[in-house]
Amino acid sequence: MPISSDMHQTFCAHFRTSKKSTDPKLLISISSLQMNLTERRNAIFLSPTISIFILIIISLAPYSTLSIRFPDQISEIPKEPSNRPLKTVIFALGSFWRSEAVFGCLDGVVRTTAGYAGGSKLNPEYRSLGDHAESVQIEYDPRSISFRQLLEVFWTSHDSRQVFGQGPDVGNQYRSIIFTNGTEEYSLAAQSKEREQTRSKMSVVTTQIQQLGTFYPAEPEHQKFELKRNPFLLQLIGGNLSAEELERSSLAAKLNGYAAELCPPRMQRHIDAKINDILRKGWPILREV
Ligand code: MHO
Q: Which residues cross the membrane (predicted)?
């Protein structure tokens, strides 16, 4: 029980007047104060034992943290910044597993979704996507990253000259498209394509520039695909995240890029360091990067 200032004053008054007061109120105050002092003495007496126990635990820690202690589930996923005005852009540049990983790891990108766009088929699915292209929808904070910078990443992250495919993936679904929303985006996209064509004298840049139409999010199993392939990283953010949480989480978007080793080098190193720190401490789970 803490000593209240009333009690303290009563106690002093008692010593100033008489040590043998018979005032019952005072006697109660004094006896409770004495109890309090006894408790404190006990606490002081116990503390070396507790301290030694704590020291043993700490000294054994390096040997016991070879595995990380993860909670079964986190009750709350990390808070995402919610009140910033975000912008959205959609690109197609080959397999959407990879495209999501390329953009998810950039500073200023808040959320990514793999999906289908650029075709006319209603409600496309992975096994029957019709004339759509595998695409990524990117939600970004324009104060941190611009459409122009995203275009740069688009051009440097795939081979826009490859016809009817991307890398080893062959087919119309892997074609290269910039989807634009409005005239300003259109002219930025067109200028950047011209620059790209100037750089590539020997071959034609196949990238199409299309007015944004409907974007169909892909099935849950295609979202954050690279992260899902990495159970260690999934555990690191708490495990058992629902499909919706995985889809909306900025942290999952970043780690999806990290898992595919597609983050910009500085970010890749930054996440490495965070993870190493957690491994060294054995706690806590990764909540942000
Ligand atoms: N060649 C790729 C295609 C993936 S995709 C989402 C793969 O099978 O890994 O189209």
A: 43-63
